[in-house]
Amino acid sequence: MYSKIIGARYYRADGIFGKDDIVSPRDTEGHGTHTASTAAGNLVTGANMAGLASGTARGGAPSARIAVYKICWFDGCYDALTFLQHLMMLLPMELI
Q1: Which of 34, 43, 73, 94 has the most CB atoms within 10 Å of its CB?
Q2: How far is CA 22 from CA 16, 29, 36, 42, 95, in A?
Q3: Nearest CA-CA partner of 40 in 70, 69, 67, 60
Q4: C-alpha closest to that of 29 among 78, 82, 74, 80
Q5: What is the pLDDT of residues 19-33, one digit of tens each?
Q6: Residues 35-75 pLDDT 10s
């Protein structure tokens, strides 16, 4: 068994964190965990919703590994656009 998460960082454009923020990549709201499992979740047999529609659930690429950036904080996810703009500046043009 290997770890799916191969990197984790956090980002806050203004560097100002609230008293309720956990200043780390740890997901405190559940949004990042949900998104990561949608992308790279392992096979789960017997998955269901309140006992209905039992079957096998999996992410889009179950064998994938992921690097995550936390950009959602207690006051919202306002840094998402800024983060994506910075990320796109780092990517080779053929990937954009």
Answers
A1: 73
A2: 12, 11, 19, 27, 33
A3: 60
A4: 74
A5: 999 999 998 888 888
A6: 888 999 899 999 998 989 899 999 999 999 998 888 888 88
How far apart CA 9 and CA 71 sit, in angstroms, is 9
37: tokens are 């499992």
Nearest Cα to 72, choosing from 23, 6, 39, 38? 23
Global pTM value: 0.65
Q: 39 is written with which tokens?
A: 């992308």
Of 58 and 85, the structure prediction assigns the larger pLDDT to: 58
Written as six digits, the tokens of 26 are 């740890």
Structure tokens at 54: 């039992």
Q: How far apart are CA 34 and CA 62, in angstroms?
A: 14
Residue 73, class by beta-carbon neighbours within 10 Å (0-12 exposed, 13-18 middle, 19+ buried)?
A: buried
In single-letter form, the type of residue at position 2 comes to Y
